[in-house]
Design goal:
Largest sheet: none
């Protein structure tokens, strides 16, 4: 059912996405429970896909019109904010923050038996990937630096990111 919607997202085609039956009021009235669950389940994946693709207009549609919860996480614990930071999607990152995304939320998988499961904040993922534009956006909006220069992860960041962190730490 969602393939045409995902295809529209991958192409960045908002008009085609809006024609999907998930958003059609008549279809929702026929079977409200099914559409409610489908919309909730699939809309989060759609928001993550829109964020991955850098499709700000689609992300805004999903947040504003479909009412996808801004901090809804997938099973890996990722929210759209984590993805935007990781992918360097500063425009979407700013919009998510404006919509109330929790900039300190950690990526925590629902269930894991792996003690080394990868956890981290949006700031951590932006820094790890060298997305200086997103690091700056997050810091401007109050993200806290929890690493120190002696931390192993800190050493993996690019020189630009390290300098940005050190500058903020001195303030």
């Amino acid at each position: 059912m969602a393939k045409p919607a995902f295809d529209a997202i991958m192409k960045g085609d908002l008009a085609a996405l809006k024609k999907h039956p998930l958003w059609d009021k008549q279809s929702r009235r026929r079977n409200p429970l099914v559409f409610s669950r489908l919309q909730e389940y699939e809309s989060n994946f759609m928001l993550l896909a829109a964020t991955d693709g850098g499709h700000t207009d689609i992300a805004k549609f999903l947040l504003d019109e479909v009412k996808v919860p801004v901090d809804q996480a997938n099973r890996s614990g990722e929210t759209a904010l984590h993805r935007a930071a990781y992918r360097g999607r500063a425009e979407i990152l700013i919009y998510l923050i404006q919509k109330g995304a929790d900039i300190e939320r950690l990526k925590v998988p629902e269930q894991t038996t792996n003690p080394d499961a990868f956890l981290g904040s949006a700031l951590f993922f932006a820094a790890l990937r060298g997305k200086l534009n997103c690091v700056r956006v997050l810091l401007r909006h109050g993200a806290k630096i929890t690493l120190t220069p002696g931390d192993d992860h800190f050493q993996t960041f690019s020189d630009e990111i390290k300098q940005e962190f050190l500058t903020v730490m001195k303030l």
